[in-house]
Task: structure prediction
Amino acid sequence: MKYIHLFGMNAEEIRAEIRRVLDRLGFEIFEKDFEIVASRDEEKVRVEMRYMGKSNLNLPQTEVIFECAEDVHAEIIKELRTSRMGG
Result:
């Protein structure tokens, strides 16, 4: 299933943060340009990032597309929120 999120970070920052979260969750990571493919046991995750420019407030925006199972997506988003966004 595909899940689309818009993050107020540049593509390099969000790529590093997602990579750190996937590593912490025990995924084996394969990376190329702005795409991350990770696997853990039978679970697979594909993450694609697209820089969308700046918002009206001059903040960078990056679209992140997660392609994975619903429970894996929830686990990644929960970890991202608690690690980067303070809960």
